[in-house]
Amino acid sequence: MDEAGRGSFLGPLVVGAFAVDSDRVPELREAGARDSKELTPHGREAAYARLRSIGEMRSVALLPAVVDRSVRRQELNELEATAFGHLVRGLRAGEAHVDACDPNERRFARRVAQHAGLPVTVIARHHADRDDPVVGAASIVAKVRRDRAIARLVGELGQEVGSGYPSDPETVEFVRDWLASHTEHPPWLRASWATMRRVKLGRPAVTLDRFVK
Q1: pLDDT range class, residue 185, cuts 50, 70, 90
Q2: Per-residue pLDDT averaged across 171-191, rounded?
Q3: Which CATH class is domain 2-153?
Q4: Is-same-fold flag (2-153; 158-201)?
Q5: Which pLDDT value is given to residue 192?
Q6: Interior angle at CA 141, CA 29 and CA 26, nearest 5
Q7: Is 212 exposed, middle or buried (0-12, 13-18, 19+ CB in 10 A)?
Q8: 2-4 and 13-19: which strand pairing?
Q9: Is the separation of the CB atoms in 143 and 16 below 8 Å?
Q10: CATH number of 158-201
């Protein structure tokens, strides 16, 4: 399991899962399983299509309001552990490999197992999306489904929004223009990041597009 969109302005945080029989794991690298950030959008879609024939894909989309609430409570890692556990429970996995968002890998593994509520071995590692092909496959699931959510948002708004991350000048410009011409807070926009306050004040936003793990 892995996530996409943790540090974004726009759209959901998507937790993706890829379930595969252990004897088919060697097929994943050839199918394109790797850290989704290493692939272009077209490359991710192509790998996604190949991986569908090897294992089962599932995901959970966490809407901006849900993420904002967890950020304010300093419980974002717990929110992700809950989502990961939900996916483990639904797939009834005997072993789960996850990309750890908590600095303490073992602690995050314990929380995921507790939220799963069934006997499961959870292996949590930093950079697992890069090093573990099963997590790499989950990374592609999460990123493709988030990309599609952003594409739907573009269709609804009728204009480009960029990648959705505060490191993207196109996204920052879009958010500034929206806030300057609207009084309501839209459901697709997060409000809890410190970067959002800088955007509201009109100052340049210089941030990483992902939290350091």
Answers
A1: confident
A2: 90
A3: alpha beta
A4: no
A5: 77
A6: 20
A7: exposed
A8: antiparallel
A9: yes
A10: 1.10.10.460
Interval 127-154 mean pLDDT: 96
pLDDT band of residue 179 (cuts 50, 70, 90) is: confident
3-state secondary structure the chain: CEEECCCCCECCEEEEEEECCHHHCCHHHHHCCCCHHHCCHHHHHHHHHHHCCCCEEEEEEECHHHHHHHHHCCCHHHHHHHHHHHHHHHHCCCEEEEECCCCCHHHHHHHHHHHHCCCCEEEEECCHHHHCHHHHHHHHHHHHHHHHHHHHHHHHHCCCCCCCCCCCHHHHHHHHHHHHHCCCCCCCECCCCHHHHHHHHCCCCCCCCCCCC
Domain boundaries, the chain: 2-153, 158-201
Burial class (CB in 10 A: 0-12, 13-18, 19+), 42: exposed
Q: What is the separation of C-alpha 208 from the centre of its chain, rounded to a whole number of angstroms?
A: 15
Residue 168, both tokens: 């993207």
Amino acid at 107: R
At residue 200, the pLDDT reads 66
Cβ burial, residue 51 (10 Å; 0-12/13-18/19+): buried
Q: Name residue 117's amino acid.
A: G
- Which strands, in side-by-side order, build the sheet including 13-19? 2-4, 13-19, 56-62
Residue 205 has pLDDT above 60, yes or no: no
